[in-house]
Specification:
Elements lengths: L18 E3 L8 E4 L5 E3 L5 H10 L8 H14 L7 E4 L6 H8 L3 E6 L2 H9 L3 E4 L12 E7 L8 H11 E12 L4 H6 L13 E2 L2 H10 L3 E8 L5 H5 L24 H17 L4 E7 L2
Parallel strand pairs: 4-5, 4-7, 5-6, 7-8
Antiparallel strand pairs: 1-2, 2-3, 3-9, 8-11, 10-11
Bound molecules: zinc ion.
Zinc ion (ZN) binds next to loops.
Length: about 290
Amino acid sequence: MPKLSSEHQYCILCGNDELIPMERYKAAHLCQCLKCHLVFSSQQPTSNEIETLQKGKKWKDHITDDAYRRYAHILDRFEHFRKNGRILDLDCSHGEFLEMAKERGWEVYGTADTREALEICRSKGLEMYEGALNVEIFAENTFDIVCARNILEHIVNPNEELKKIRKIIRSGGLLYVTTPNFNSFLRFRLREKYSIISYPLRLVYYTRRPFKRLFKMNDFRIMETEASGVSISKRQIARAKSTVPITEESDFIEWDEGLKESWLSRFQKKNLNPVFSFLGIGDFLKGWFVKP
Ligand SMILES: [Zn+2]
């Protein structure tokens, strides 16, 4: 059957034209590239679909102590890359991460798509720019560090965008990336009901191999990748069809005020995280990529 014009003809990562539809994930239009194994939506959303999505974007201002601890740990490790002291967080939500970086003396910059996020971040005194991937406004070699947390899954031209991002990082600087792991324990368990799989919210689903390949292809040195993070509590499984955007932080954010993190989910996180990470079936891929 001929492909519709709104469908991808080639793999968005490696350009191969052998794409096999994934029947089980039909609702999200998923296909897989036979060559690089990337999973992505063969369907390109219409501008209407994207607009509706933007309007529905919901964030909570509150992040828990766990998230702060994790941010602090990441920022500790960022110190190794501090030279000019500038850091950019792409699509920085409500700027919690940047606020913490600022407290540590970083010169912080953020981007966001929605007026709400821009206003909230600006009210916190953060330097903000409109457009999550609006990086061309920055001069080349500007940043010690660029963070691309949970945006890769929305990008259907990753090589192109990565080239632009690479330019604004100084030589020896870091690109820190997180994105949902398609090979996560939860996806194997929940299959098409896994809430991460959601069209048109997410269009690209990485596993470790294509994740590494993308950054190698774009001249980054892979310092470290891991597939960690556990969120197997019952309430998240029950919420599998929820429309609330699930991000790396969701595990730590109490979307429903009435629900507190249970001792069981804390236990699971503490004890299963190292195992899942070792097996590569954690919920999130995290990568540390250096521009040589
Ligand atoms: Zn491919």
